[in-house]
Amino acid sequence: MPSLRHLRSLGWVLVSTLGSGLLALAVLGAWLWPPAGRIAPGVRIGLLPVGGYSPAEAVALLQHVVSRPIEVRYGSRTWTWQPAAPAGTGGAASRWQASVTAAVAQALAVGRQGGITQRLQALVVARLRGHHVPMPADGGTFDRLVAEVAAALERPARDARPVVREGRVVRVAREQVGLDVDEEELRRRLRAAWLDPIRREVPVPVRRLTPRLTAASVQAGGYSYLLGSFTTQFDPKQAGRVHNIRLAASALNGWVIQPGQEFSFNQVVGPRVPENGYQEAPVIIDGRFVPGIGGGVSQVATTLFNAALLAGLAIVERHEHALPVWYVALGRDATVWDGLLDLRLRNDTPGPVLVVTEVGEASLTVSLFGRARPPYQVEIETEVFVKEPVRTVYVPDPSLPPAVEVVEKPGRPTCAVNTWRVFRAEGQPVRREYVAYSLYQGEEQVIRAAPRPPGPDGLPPADSPPAAAAAEAAGGPGGCRG
């Protein structure tokens, strides 16, 4: 049985231990628990430590920091951004004042919400790891600044360009490295600097765009002569189509076709899909123009086809459109379709051939260059004829007088074309080569006219095309034109 002395000793131990524990809890509580009306230690708003601040002090600190100007720099160029003062007046100031007030209220709530366990956990995490309270910036203001910086700095990469005089390359215009502003990263840096009490200077993040074709590569290849060149026009207002033309042309630019090598347009340009950057624009499907991905790429193929004809390259595969296209004569177009229709060429010349593309505001030029002056000049001849005349459909319209006919929809005959290539040396024909047969489907003409009385036999009268339709059938205005 323990003695009274032992019991007294044990009691003192228990009291001492309990006292130490209570003291430790008191110290821990004082270390963790914020004073009344103060933000918990370890809490930050943006990059600003606001732990231990009262809400009024935190608001004053934020207002001071976010109202200071920020400098955006790239090289020697500088843009100064002066945020609207949150304490001021106006729409932006009101929005920022609301953001400041909301952020401070969220900071004050750390360690003051939920049960005791949740509060302690939040306070420990804030002390040991820190607690970040986001404060949204005025995104519209950032967007305007980012757009201004991008407009001032961005420039496309420009490839080297051979300058030709009388069929010979006299010099090579040098390439230009392009610049592209990383707008999302610039916004992120602006948001960080906006709440940074020290760093108020933001470097502009840019990506350098490397030209595909350089003056050094053209000169090293010895491409001194123009073999063939062709230009087509496009409508600059058709944004999706122009984008696709530029994208496909850039894939061709700088390509070299070695002697004896076969060139595939589809392999070089790649699939025309959104993942590769292609956009929606009109395409021909089942004899109609409909929206589709990659519209305009066939104009690039057409322009290359004609340059290859003039350069004397062998045409291995080529397909005409189902309908005539406005930017080139009948029999001189080339359509392509992923995995189905291709433009394939073969370099039968003794040296390599360099493909150079140039896209202007409303035109596309494809030029082929070689090392030696071509021994011939090439001319393209086409023979265009009507395969089937225009079919006319009459639609009765009782509101029209008997002698009046209204063309509701102009028609087009079915047209066929033979394409030839003539090689000349010193102006004299050396060889005439058959290139292709092309067939373009027609379209019926729709005419509104007054109902016709029946003939003597009581039957409806047979359709007789008016003068305009007869002219089309004969290949006149609106008919087959080469």
Helical content band:
25-40%
Q: What ranges have pLDDT less than 50 throughout 5 or more consecutive residues?
A: 18-28, 464-478
Tally the beta strands: 25
What is the rounded Rg? 39 Å
Number of helices: 11
User: Which structural category fits the helices and strands?
Assistant: alpha+beta
> What number is the mean pLDDT?
82
Sheet with most strands: 4 strands, antiparallel
Supply the number of structural domains: 3
N-end to C-end Cα span: 125 Å
Overall, the morphology is: elongated
Strand order of the largest sheet: 11-19-18-12
Query: Which percent range describes the beta-strand content?
Result: 25-35%
Task: List its salient traits.
3 domains; three-stranded mixed β-sheet; 25 strands; Resuscitation-promoting factor rpfb fold; alpha+beta; about 475 residues; four-stranded antiparallel β-sheet; about 30% strand
Written account of the structure:
The chain is built from eleven helices and 25 strands. The chain is α+β, with helices and mostly antiparallel strands and 482 residues long. It folds into three domains: 116 residues, no CATH class; 153 residues, no CATH class; 106 residues, Resuscitation-promoting factor rpfb fold (Single Sheet), CATH 2.20.230. Strands 11-19-18-12 form a four-stranded antiparallel beta sheet. A hairpin with a 3-residue loop joins strand 18 and strand 19. Helix 2 crosses helix 3. The longest helix has 29 residues. The protein is elongated and about 105 Å long.
